[in-house]
Amino acid sequence: MRVLIAEDDPYLADAIRTGLRRETIAADVVHDGTRALDAVIDENYDIVVLDRDLPGVHGDEVCSRLAREHPEVRVLMLTAAGTLDDRVAGFELGADDYLPKPFEFPELVVRLRALERRNQPASPPVLDAHGVRLDPFRREVYRSGRLIRLSPKEFAVLHTLMKADGGALGAQTLLEQAWDANADPFSNTVRVTVSNLRKRLGRPWVIQTVPGAGYRFGTAA
Questions:
Q1: pLDDT tens readout for residues 103-133
Q2: Fewer beta carbons under 10 A from the terminal one: N or C of the chain?
Q3: 104: exposed, middle or buried (Cβ count in 10 Å: 0-12, 13-18, 19+)
């Protein structure tokens, strides 16, 4: 999942980004509405966490334009304006969810996970294939009943590959889903992460290299 945090309070924005990365959610930050709209054009975000009172282009206008021009991007409004009228107005602008400040961080994560599921074909929350069981909410991975300790990036890559249901994903796609905008597309980050992930999961390998296409989750033919 790729999330853009559009929040003018740098301390809150940084705290949210740090927390989301610990939850294996790739997150970037902008501090005004103009940069938020530009970022959505430049990057493939799944969700925008949007402060309503943004400088530059106001958050209400950002929400309206996203709903109109980028309907595939979900919007979660995160704002101090939390009355019933405020929430109704936010939904009328095109927001998909609305969370008043102050908020509890676990609730933000749960709401983001729920919004992510709306953009995907129906699938069981817990993924289980080829002897690997991945629970995205508990952030646990088991191989043949044995708990596997993974880094946040390794978990995110495995989750992305398993959701592809046997389809091959290129390094660029994995970068977009598991890393933030600062990731270097010309580095060997994906290759190293996949190599380490294979070793942690053990044999027989369940992540295959597809020449010219990238990687897929599944056993060798």
A1: 999 999 999 999 987 766 555 678 999 999 9
A2: C
A3: exposed
Same domain, 77 and 51: yes
Q: Is residue 76 within 8 Å of residue 50, measured between CB atoms?
A: yes
81-111 tens-digit pLDDT: 777 888 888 899 999 999 998 899 999 999 9
Sheet holding 47-50, edge to edge: 26-30, 2-6, 47-50, 74-79, 97-100
Cα separation of 209 and 53, whole Å?
Answer: 46
Give the pLDDT confidence of 173-216 residue by residue, as tens digits.
898 888 776 666 667 889 999 999 999 999 999 999 999 899 99
Using an 8 Å Cβ cutoff, are 204 and 211 in contact?
no
Sequence-ordered list of residues with C-beta below 8 angstroms from that of 156, at least 6 positions apart, any chain: 24, 25, 26, 177, 178
CATH number of domain containing 49: 3.40.50.2300
Cβ atoms of 97 and 67 closer than 8 Å: no
CA-to-CA distance for 79 and 98, rounded, in angstroms?
A: 8
Q: Quote the number of domains for the chain.
A: 2
Mean pLDDT for the chain overall: 90
Distance CA 116, CA 103 (A): 20
Residue 160 and residue 191 in one domain = yes
